[in-house]
Amino acid sequence: MPVLLQTPDVADLLAISGVRIGVAEAAIRKVNRKDLTIFLVEEGCAVGAVFTQNRFAAAPVQVCREHLAAGQPIRAIVINTGNANAGTGASGLSDARQTCAALARAMGFQHEQVLPFSTGVIMEPLPLDRLLAGLPKALESAGSGQAGEAARWLLAAEAIMTTDTLPKAASVGWTSAEKRFSATGIAKGAGMIRPNMATMLGFLATDAAVEPALMNQLAKQLADASFNRVTVDGDTSTNDSFVVLATGQAGNKPIADLNTPDGQALVKALTQVAQVLAHAIVRDGEGATKFITIQVDGGRNTEECLKVAYAVAHSPLVKTAFFASDPNLGRILAAVGYAGISDLDATQIELHLGDVHVVTAGGRHPQYREEDGQRVMKEPEILVRIGLQRGTVSDTVWTCDLSHDYVTINADYRS
Fold first, then answer.
1. In the chain, where are the structural domains located?
2. Can you tell me the mean pLDDT for 282-287?
3. 311 partner at 20 to 30 Å CA-CA among 58, 95, 174, 255?
4. Active-site residue identified among 81, 199, 247, 399
5. In terms of C-beta density within 10 A (0-12 exposed, 13-18 middle, 19 or more buried), how is residue 334 classed?
């Protein structure tokens, strides 16, 4: 069961003017499930994206990069679940391109104006015939206006799921310079999660107008504050993609600098949505029973804070201890020690588990009792604070525990 996570209430989601969504059942991998999604965006929409740094990038990731580099305005997104179209060689690239071409023909676009995305099993041929047959149904589902668009965001969140147990969607509204703005996003991911530039799949749209040249910077800044701070199992997917759309339908003067008041308001609002989605991925981590915040303070720079945080977050021994609520907290110290800080002074390390001071000056706090540590570890949400005493920089990573169910889910994934 996901950790304190529920299906989003459609009443809390906001339609985004300039975006239409269609969803269909195409039997990509399983029958009778929504597995094909399209986003259609109006002219003038600005797009930014970040993608996996995995060198075995999936075919759709490669095609997305090509199409964005071509400089044509993006008018559509097509997403399939059930098949990652990764590790599929030249035929996979051809399938991704044919998918774009088919949707472009149907809408009167150039094929470079379509971005393809896939998620699911790696190294299996994409069932292109079924995908193409599903496109007309997805287009018909898209409708022609705002009516019901908020509900379609939730349908899209369901249609991009793989091992997720719940759809992930969030919205926010804000007012700036007498304009009312909205933003809505969806994401999928539960395993194979250690994003390196992005989440497994994430799509965020706002009706604010933003200069196109700013969009990649915006996407990276949002990813770094959210998806690049979560991990379930330490694996970076071949398909990680995060896309930000700014339709400009709110009618504001396009934001050209993120450091202006309007730019900062935009970043704050979109970061809120991105972090809700990123946290939802961890809360729905395969087999997760605990949501764990690892906060590292007193670092010299962000890099060493993240080294320590991820060393702890990725340790199977730490993660299984949290699953068992076993306060074997020396495992955390061991992870801090091998995190890769060559001149770390272990005698300066402080460790808090929730409200319990576990370690001081590199050793067990004289007032620490194991029953206090176990009390915190039994909670569904846990804060781990590690003090390095080396500087003034802090950073945070969110993760989950490692349970028996994680092994079961991944052992049965293709069955």
1. 10-283, 291-411
2. 91
3. 58
4. 199
5. middle
| Neighbouring residues of 318: CB distance < 8 A, sequence distance ≥ 6 | 312, 331, 332, 335
β partners of residue 370: none
Instruction: Please state at what angle helix 89-107 crosses helix 59-70, rounded to 10 degrees.
Output: 50
Per-residue pLDDT tens for 210-244?
A: 999 999 999 999 999 999 999 998 888 899 999 99
> What percent of the residues of the chain are helix, what percent strand, and what percent coil, each to the nearest 5?
35, 25, 40
pLDDT at 188 > cutoff 90: yes
Amino acid at 101: A
Burial 176-209 (b: 16+ CB within 10 A, else e): beebebbbbbbbbbbbbbbbebbbbbbbbbbbbb
Known active-site residue 206: no
Amino acid, single-letter form, for residue 55: R
For 111, the token pair is: 């094929």
| 3-class DSSP state of 195 | coil
The model's pTM is: 0.95
Look at the domain 10-283 and name its fold: L-amino peptidase D-ALA esterase/amidase (3.60.70)
* pLDDT tens digit sequence for 136-166: 999 999 976 555 789 999 999 999 999 899 9
In whole numbers, what is the pLDDT of the chain averaged over residues?
A: 95
Asked if residues 132 and 102 have their Cβ atoms less than 8 Å apart, the reply is yes
Tens digits of residue pLDDT in 33-59: 999 999 999 999 999 999 999 999 999
Q: Residue 201: helix, strand or coil by DSSP?
A: strand
Q: Which CATH superfamily is domain 291-411 in?
A: ArgJ beta chain, C-terminal domain (3.10.20.340)
Burial code of 70-83, b = ≥16 C-beta within 10 A, e = fewer?
eeebbbbbbbbbbb
Cβ neighbours of residue 384 closer than 8 Å, sequence gap 6 or more:
292, 293, 294, 295, 312, 332, 351, 352, 353
